[in-house]
Amino acid sequence: MTLHYERILVALDGSEESEYALQKGVETALTCDSALAFCYIIDYHNIRELRRGSPDLLSASERIGTDILNRAKQSAEDQGVKNVLTFMKEGPPKALISGEIAHEFGADLILSGGSGAGTFEKRIFGSVAASIVRHASCDVWIVKNEKPPAPYRSVLIAVDGSEVSTSALYAGLDIAKREKSRVQVVYVLNTPFISSAEYHTEDIIQMYQERGKDLLEEYRSLSVGAGISAIDFSVEYGAPKVVIPTEAANKFEADLIVAGSSGMGRAERLFLGSVSESLVRRAACDVLIVRNDYLPK
Fold it and tell me: What is the pLDDT of residues 236-276, one digit of tens each?
Protein backbone atom coordinates (compact mmCIF):
# COMPACT_ATOMS: atom_id res chain seq x y z
CA MET A 1 0.00 0.00 0.00
CA THR A 2 1.33 3.44 -0.92
CA LEU A 3 2.09 5.89 1.89
CA HIS A 4 -0.69 8.45 1.69
CA TYR A 5 -2.10 11.14 3.97
CA GLU A 6 -5.43 12.95 3.67
CA ARG A 7 -5.10 15.51 6.49
CA ILE A 8 -1.72 16.73 7.77
CA LEU A 9 -1.34 18.77 10.96
CA VAL A 10 1.88 20.75 11.49
CA ALA A 11 2.72 22.10 14.97
CA LEU A 12 4.55 25.44 14.83
CA ASP A 13 6.38 27.34 17.56
CA GLY A 14 8.59 29.81 15.72
CA SER A 15 11.74 27.66 15.94
CA GLU A 16 13.99 26.82 13.02
CA GLU A 17 13.02 23.15 13.32
CA SER A 18 9.32 23.97 13.15
CA GLU A 19 10.05 25.89 9.94
CA TYR A 20 11.57 22.69 8.58
CA ALA A 21 8.46 20.81 9.74
CA LEU A 22 6.35 23.40 7.91
CA GLN A 23 8.21 22.77 4.67
CA LYS A 24 8.08 18.99 5.13
CA GLY A 25 4.33 19.34 5.67
CA VAL A 26 3.93 21.39 2.49
CA GLU A 27 5.99 18.91 0.46
CA THR A 28 4.01 15.96 1.80
CA ALA A 29 0.67 17.70 1.27
CA LEU A 30 1.58 18.43 -2.36
CA THR A 31 2.71 14.83 -2.91
CA CYS A 32 -0.45 13.38 -1.37
CA ASP A 33 -2.85 16.16 -2.43
CA SER A 34 -3.72 16.51 1.27
CA ALA A 35 -5.51 19.10 3.35
CA LEU A 36 -2.96 20.92 5.54
CA ALA A 37 -3.41 22.58 8.93
CA PHE A 38 -1.02 24.58 11.09
CA CYS A 39 -1.39 24.99 14.84
CA TYR A 40 0.23 27.29 17.38
CA ILE A 41 -0.21 26.77 21.11
CA ILE A 42 0.07 29.45 23.77
CA ASP A 43 1.28 27.54 26.82
CA TYR A 44 -0.90 28.98 29.56
CA HIS A 45 1.34 27.57 32.33
CA ASN A 46 4.25 29.70 31.12
CA ILE A 47 1.97 32.66 30.42
CA ARG A 48 0.42 32.47 33.89
CA GLU A 49 3.85 32.68 35.53
CA LEU A 50 5.07 35.53 33.36
CA ARG A 51 1.82 37.46 33.16
CA ARG A 52 2.32 38.98 36.62
CA GLY A 53 5.31 40.96 35.43
CA SER A 54 3.85 41.72 32.01
CA PRO A 55 0.06 42.06 31.76
CA ASP A 56 0.27 42.33 27.97
CA LEU A 57 2.16 39.07 27.58
CA LEU A 58 -0.86 37.06 26.44
CA SER A 59 -1.72 39.64 23.78
CA ALA A 60 1.89 39.63 22.61
CA SER A 61 1.86 35.84 22.38
CA GLU A 62 -1.36 35.93 20.40
CA ARG A 63 0.18 38.42 17.96
CA ILE A 64 3.25 36.23 17.57
CA GLY A 65 1.11 33.14 17.01
CA THR A 66 -1.13 34.90 14.51
CA ASP A 67 1.89 36.11 12.55
CA ILE A 68 3.48 32.63 12.50
CA LEU A 69 0.24 31.00 11.35
CA ASN A 70 -0.51 33.63 8.70
CA ARG A 71 2.98 33.34 7.23
CA ALA A 72 2.76 29.54 7.22
CA LYS A 73 -0.64 29.58 5.51
CA GLN A 74 0.54 32.06 2.89
CA SER A 75 3.68 30.03 2.22
CA ALA A 76 1.70 26.80 1.78
CA GLU A 77 -0.82 28.44 -0.55
CA ASP A 78 1.93 30.12 -2.58
CA GLN A 79 3.50 26.67 -3.11
CA GLY A 80 0.23 25.22 -4.36
CA VAL A 81 -1.52 23.64 -1.36
CA LYS A 82 -5.23 24.19 -1.96
CA ASN A 83 -6.80 23.45 1.42
CA VAL A 84 -5.02 25.17 4.35
CA LEU A 85 -6.42 25.76 7.85
CA THR A 86 -4.97 27.28 11.02
CA PHE A 87 -5.57 26.67 14.74
CA MET A 88 -4.40 28.78 17.67
CA LYS A 89 -5.28 27.65 21.19
CA GLU A 90 -4.23 28.43 24.74
CA GLY A 91 -3.32 25.50 26.96
CA PRO A 92 -0.79 22.69 27.40
CA PRO A 93 0.81 21.82 24.02
CA LYS A 94 1.31 18.17 24.99
CA ALA A 95 -2.43 17.60 25.33
CA LEU A 96 -3.81 19.95 22.69
CA ILE A 97 -1.74 18.99 19.66
CA SER A 98 -2.24 15.22 19.69
CA GLY A 99 -5.67 15.42 21.32
CA GLU A 100 -8.16 18.21 20.73
CA ILE A 101 -6.67 19.76 17.58
CA ALA A 102 -5.75 16.49 15.86
CA HIS A 103 -9.25 15.17 16.59
CA GLU A 104 -10.98 18.37 15.45
CA PHE A 105 -9.02 18.43 12.20
CA GLY A 106 -9.13 14.66 11.68
CA ALA A 107 -5.37 14.42 11.20
CA ASP A 108 -3.81 11.20 9.92
CA LEU A 109 -0.31 12.71 10.23
CA ILE A 110 1.15 15.13 12.77
CA LEU A 111 4.41 16.91 11.94
CA SER A 112 6.48 18.68 14.58
CA GLY A 113 9.94 20.01 15.17
CA GLY A 114 12.04 18.15 17.70
CA SER A 115 13.10 20.97 20.02
CA GLY A 116 11.94 24.27 21.43
CA ALA A 117 11.59 27.74 19.98
CA GLY A 118 13.93 30.63 20.47
CA THR A 119 11.07 32.94 21.50
CA PHE A 120 10.36 33.91 25.12
CA GLU A 121 7.46 31.47 25.38
CA LYS A 122 9.57 28.40 24.49
CA ARG A 123 7.56 25.29 23.74
CA ILE A 124 10.35 22.90 24.80
CA PHE A 125 9.31 20.68 21.90
CA GLY A 126 11.78 17.94 22.80
CA SER A 127 9.41 16.76 25.52
CA VAL A 128 6.32 17.85 23.61
CA ALA A 129 7.39 15.77 20.60
CA ALA A 130 7.71 12.65 22.76
CA SER A 131 4.29 13.36 24.25
CA ILE A 132 2.76 13.72 20.78
CA VAL A 133 4.19 10.31 19.88
CA ARG A 134 2.81 8.81 23.10
CA HIS A 135 -0.73 10.12 22.75
CA ALA A 136 -1.40 10.52 19.01
CA SER A 137 -3.72 8.08 17.28
CA CYS A 138 -2.11 8.69 13.87
CA ASP A 139 1.36 8.76 12.33
CA VAL A 140 3.82 11.27 13.82
CA TRP A 141 6.74 12.75 11.88
CA ILE A 142 9.33 14.54 14.01
CA VAL A 143 11.78 16.80 12.14
CA LYS A 144 15.19 16.89 13.83
CA ASN A 145 17.77 17.10 11.02
CA GLU A 146 20.01 20.14 11.32
CA LYS A 147 19.81 21.02 7.64
CA PRO A 148 16.68 22.17 5.75
CA PRO A 149 14.47 19.53 4.12
CA ALA A 150 16.11 17.58 1.30
CA PRO A 151 15.71 14.09 -0.14
CA TYR A 152 16.62 11.52 2.49
CA ARG A 153 19.85 9.69 1.66
CA SER A 154 19.54 6.85 4.18
CA VAL A 155 16.32 5.46 5.70
CA LEU A 156 16.59 3.18 8.73
CA ILE A 157 13.50 0.97 9.24
CA ALA A 158 13.21 -0.68 12.67
CA VAL A 159 11.18 -3.91 12.68
CA ASP A 160 10.14 -6.33 15.42
CA GLY A 161 7.78 -8.85 13.84
CA SER A 162 4.57 -6.99 14.69
CA GLU A 163 1.90 -6.01 12.18
CA VAL A 164 2.54 -2.33 12.77
CA SER A 165 6.25 -2.74 12.03
CA THR A 166 5.26 -4.31 8.71
CA SER A 167 3.29 -1.11 8.06
CA ALA A 168 6.43 0.82 9.01
CA LEU A 169 8.38 -1.24 6.47
CA TYR A 170 5.97 -0.35 3.67
CA ALA A 171 5.94 3.32 4.73
CA GLY A 172 9.73 3.50 4.84
CA LEU A 173 10.11 1.74 1.50
CA ASP A 174 7.64 4.11 -0.12
CA ILE A 175 9.53 7.16 1.15
CA ALA A 176 12.86 5.66 0.06
CA LYS A 177 11.52 4.88 -3.41
CA ARG A 178 10.17 8.41 -3.82
CA GLU A 179 13.39 10.05 -2.59
CA LYS A 180 15.82 7.48 -4.05
CA SER A 181 17.25 6.67 -0.61
CA ARG A 182 19.19 3.64 0.46
CA VAL A 183 17.46 1.50 3.09
CA GLN A 184 18.65 -0.44 6.14
CA VAL A 185 16.10 -2.74 7.78
CA VAL A 186 17.12 -3.49 11.37
CA TYR A 187 15.92 -6.01 13.93
CA VAL A 188 17.34 -5.39 17.40
CA LEU A 189 17.86 -8.40 19.63
CA ASN A 190 17.02 -7.12 23.10
CA THR A 191 19.99 -8.69 24.89
CA PRO A 192 19.51 -6.85 28.23
CA PHE A 193 15.98 -8.24 28.46
CA ILE A 194 17.08 -11.75 27.51
CA SER A 195 20.06 -11.70 29.89
CA SER A 196 17.73 -10.99 32.80
CA ALA A 197 16.60 -14.62 32.58
CA GLU A 198 18.32 -16.63 35.31
CA TYR A 199 18.82 -19.86 33.37
CA HIS A 200 19.83 -20.99 29.89
CA THR A 201 20.57 -17.45 28.65
CA GLU A 202 22.84 -18.67 25.85
CA ASP A 203 20.16 -21.03 24.55
CA ILE A 204 17.57 -18.24 24.68
CA ILE A 205 19.86 -15.83 22.84
CA GLN A 206 20.52 -18.42 20.14
CA MET A 207 16.77 -18.95 19.77
CA TYR A 208 16.22 -15.22 19.42
CA GLN A 209 19.05 -14.91 16.92
CA GLU A 210 17.43 -17.55 14.74
CA ARG A 211 14.09 -15.85 15.11
CA GLY A 212 15.65 -12.51 14.11
CA LYS A 213 17.19 -14.02 10.99
CA ASP A 214 13.87 -15.63 10.07
CA LEU A 215 12.06 -12.32 10.56
CA LEU A 216 14.50 -10.47 8.36
CA GLU A 217 14.00 -13.06 5.64
CA GLU A 218 10.25 -12.41 5.87
CA TYR A 219 10.85 -8.67 5.55
CA ARG A 220 13.26 -9.29 2.68
CA SER A 221 10.53 -11.14 0.79
CA LEU A 222 8.06 -8.33 1.50
CA SER A 223 10.54 -5.84 0.04
CA VAL A 224 10.85 -7.61 -3.30
CA GLY A 225 9.44 -5.42 -6.05
CA ALA A 226 9.55 -2.25 -3.91
CA GLY A 227 11.81 -0.55 -6.44
CA ILE A 228 14.66 0.11 -3.97
CA SER A 229 18.10 -0.23 -5.55
CA ALA A 230 20.07 -0.28 -2.27
CA ILE A 231 18.55 -2.22 0.64
CA ASP A 232 20.23 -4.25 3.40
CA PHE A 233 19.03 -6.20 6.43
CA SER A 234 20.80 -6.70 9.76
CA VAL A 235 20.40 -7.97 13.31
CA GLU A 236 21.75 -5.57 15.95
CA TYR A 237 22.22 -6.21 19.67
CA GLY A 238 21.33 -4.28 22.82
CA ALA A 239 18.41 -2.26 24.19
CA PRO A 240 16.24 -1.21 21.20
CA LYS A 241 15.42 2.20 22.69
CA VAL A 242 19.16 3.03 22.70
CA VAL A 243 20.53 1.01 19.80
CA ILE A 244 18.06 2.17 17.14
CA PRO A 245 18.35 5.98 17.58
CA THR A 246 22.06 6.09 18.40
CA GLU A 247 24.28 3.15 17.43
CA ALA A 248 22.30 1.89 14.42
CA ALA A 249 21.41 5.39 13.22
CA ASN A 250 25.09 6.43 13.37
CA LYS A 251 26.35 3.17 11.87
CA PHE A 252 24.11 3.46 8.82
CA GLU A 253 24.22 7.31 8.66
CA ALA A 254 20.43 7.51 8.81
CA ASP A 255 18.70 10.81 8.24
CA LEU A 256 15.26 9.22 8.74
CA ILE A 257 14.21 6.48 11.16
CA VAL A 258 10.87 4.76 10.53
CA ALA A 259 9.35 2.53 13.23
CA GLY A 260 6.01 1.18 14.35
CA SER A 261 4.35 2.55 17.46
CA SER A 262 3.86 -0.72 19.35
CA GLY A 263 5.61 -4.02 19.84
CA MET A 264 4.88 -7.64 19.13
CA GLY A 265 2.15 -9.66 20.73
CA ARG A 266 4.49 -12.64 21.20
CA ALA A 267 6.82 -13.88 23.92
CA GLU A 268 9.79 -11.96 22.50
CA ARG A 269 7.88 -8.67 22.45
CA LEU A 270 10.21 -5.65 22.16
CA PHE A 271 7.66 -3.06 23.28
CA LEU A 272 8.26 -0.59 20.45
CA GLY A 273 5.44 1.46 21.93
CA SER A 274 7.86 2.76 24.55
CA VAL A 275 10.81 2.56 22.17
CA SER A 276 9.11 5.05 19.84
CA GLU A 277 9.29 7.78 22.50
CA SER A 278 12.95 7.05 23.05
CA LEU A 279 13.59 7.33 19.31
CA VAL A 280 12.19 10.85 19.34
CA ARG A 281 14.17 11.85 22.42
CA ARG A 282 17.51 10.30 21.41
CA ALA A 283 17.71 10.42 17.62
CA ALA A 284 19.67 13.19 15.92
CA CYS A 285 17.74 12.68 12.67
CA ASP A 286 14.10 12.81 11.56
CA VAL A 287 11.77 10.14 12.96
CA LEU A 288 8.51 8.80 11.53
CA ILE A 289 6.38 6.78 13.96
CA VAL A 290 3.78 4.71 12.12
CA ARG A 291 0.33 3.92 13.49
CA ASN A 292 -1.69 3.96 10.28
CA ASP A 293 -2.32 0.72 8.39
CA TYR A 294 -0.20 0.36 5.25
CA LEU A 295 -0.66 -3.38 4.86
CA PRO A 296 -1.76 -4.65 1.43
CA LYS A 297 -5.51 -5.30 1.28
Answer: 989 899 999 999 999 999 999 999 986 444 433 344 447 88
Question: For the CA atoms of 95, 149, 163, 207, what is the dihedral angle to 10 degrees?
Answer: -110
Is the whole model's pTM more than 0.90, yes or no? no
CA–CA distance, 172 with 156 (Å, rounded to integer): 8
Contacts of 281 (CB under 8 A, 6+ apart): 126, 129, 130, 245
Hey, what CATH topology would domain 154-288 get? Answer: Rossmann fold (3.40.50)
Q: What's the Cα-to-Cα distance from 91 to each of 105, 118, 195, 256, rounded to whole Å?
A: 17, 19, 44, 31
Domain range annotation of the chain: 7-143, 154-288
Domains 7-143 and 154-288 share a fold: yes
Instruction: Identify the architecture of domain 7-143 in CATH.
Output: 3-Layer(aba) Sandwich (3.40)
